[in-house]
Amino acid sequence: MRVVAAMSGGVDSAVAAARAAEAGHEVTGIHLALSRNPKSYRSGARGCCTIEDANDARRAADVIGIPFYVWDLSDRFHTDVVENFMDTYAAGQTPNPCLRCNEKIKFAAVLDRALALGFDAVATGHYASVITTAEGGVELHRAVDAAKDQSYVLGVLDEQQLRHSLFPLGDTPKPRVREEAAARGLLVADKPDSHDICFVADGDNVGWLREKLGDRAPNHGGAIVDEASGEVLGEHAGSYGFTIGQRKGLRLGRPAPDGRPRYVLDIEPVSGTVTVGPRERLAVERIRGDQLRWCGAALPTGTVLDGGDVTVQLRAHGAEHRAVVAVGEDRLEIELIDPAYGIAPGQAAVVYDGSRVVGSATITATERVPG
């Protein structure tokens, strides 16, 4: 096959490209220029897609012996990922930009361009596996290395995208990937993994949002209110600085009457009101989500997924929660067997059947445990 290998400049994508070439595919390495400021550099292990990363990717491609190009998708990335990130926070919700990037950039814009240029597939360094069934269908499964599994952020890929996706690292633990990189002479073997949000290089999400959003209503400030008493406990400079379940950074100055910490329970973006209360009020037992994406054949409306192997993951590195999942018309109704804590609208709910990813939805509403 003719394969485009998306090379971020890190160790995972470099080894994935090398494995694809070793498997006999005709591989071309590409690096995605996603930043509108090409002179930016990463800070430690934060950020990605910088000049430094592009050079690391080019050197890795030279070692592997494959052609290498840089594709400028910065405008598309800004519109589909960065603007979505700002708009979602401005609406009082919590986005996952990595998931949006996979959906809109790596497996939409990149894959579409690759297919138009005559390539057959896109290979990435994600830790997940695509399996072809005996009937000819395709399934997305968790990686062998549970600690590095990235199937959650790939839960937005549809059947057609999976048919043109290669994840060469899904069967390998991360330490072995680094060992292999060193054995292949790849200089990125010991390069730190990137963390946080790539376009917020210093990791200060609140400061970045404050700079970008400024005084744009309705995020210019509001009250922090105690849920039980209705008492105004303090003021804040912008609701975008909070997320459901947040404990630190509230700056209330005095503890609750019972001495226990307070958590963010609700964010009302129009008035800017942030409601806080005890941790037990974060317990959620029902979730609704829309913007369905099926990793394989779509399930018909009215389908109910139930059983010991059906779980839902609600954060990129969060736990699995046993659940009953009902498929509505372009929505999921999820009932958790055991409550989850700190679940926010805007996050993704990814449904699993054992290790297989069934599909995903964007959380629009939650129902708390009465109390």
Strand content: 25-35%
Give the integer mean of the pLDDT values: 89
List the secondary-structure elements in sequence, H or E: EHEHEHHEEEHEHHEEEEEEEEEEE
Number of helices: 7
Give the helix proportion (percent range): 10-25%
CATH class membership of the largest domain: Alpha Beta
Global Rg: 22 Å
Instruction: Tell how many strands the DSSP assignment holds.
Output: 18
- The secondary-structure class comes to alpha+beta
- Going by CATH, the architecture of the largest domain would be 3-Layer(aba) Sandwich
Q: What is the CATH homology-level superfamily of the largest domain?
A: HUPs
The number of distinct structural domains comes to 3
- From the N-terminal CA to the C-terminal CA, the straight-line distance is 58 Å
| Main sheet overview | 6 strands, antiparallel, barrel
What gross morphology would you assign?
globular
Strand order of the largest sheet: 12-16-15-14-17-18
Low-confidence blocks of residues: 40-47
Q: What is the CATH topology of the largest domain?
A: Rossmann fold
Report on the structure:
Helix content is 23%, strand content 30%. With 371 residues, the protein is of the alpha+beta class. It has three domains: 2-190, HUPs (Rossmann fold, 3-Layer(aba) Sandwich), CATH 3.40.50.620; 217-277, Roll (SH3 type barrels); 282-368, Translation factors (Elongation Factor Tu (Ef-tu), domain 3, Beta Barrel). The strands form three sheets. It has a six-stranded antiparallel β-barrel with strand order 12-16-15-14-17-18. Strands 3-2-1-4-7 form a five-stranded parallel sheet, with helices on both faces. Strand 17 and strand 18 form a beta hairpin. Helix 1 (11-22) runs parallel beside helix 2 (51-64) and helix 3 (74-90) packs antiparallel against helix 4 (97-116).
